[in-house]
Amino acid sequence: xxxxxKQKLASRKLWVTVLSMxxxxxxxxxxxDNTIRLVSGVGLVLLPAIVYVFREGKIDEAxxxxxxxxxxxxxxxxxxxxxxxxxxxxxxxxxxxxxxxTEDNAINNECTNDTLKN
Length: 118
Fold this sequence. Notes:
about 120 residues; mainly alpha; 2 domains; 4 helices
């Protein structure tokens, strides 16, 4: 059975264990507290962040490799080709809405004026 060293070395458990051993050895050797805090702080904060960034990069790379670039490009080109007619349709719909709103406002104003006169 072949050992997957890449996966083993990416294990957070491994690195926490190694860091714990280093901090323990430094403590046993009488190293000052500031150095021990520095080593443990860097190990517990930076190492997980670095591993996270690299793993997310691999996940993103795998996701991008599944995208069919030709189909994606064809979809964008089709959208751009239909965009002018869609924009025109949106403008007409918006104009119709504005006309209807203007007519409704005029009717409401006439009704209000008639009510006030009576």
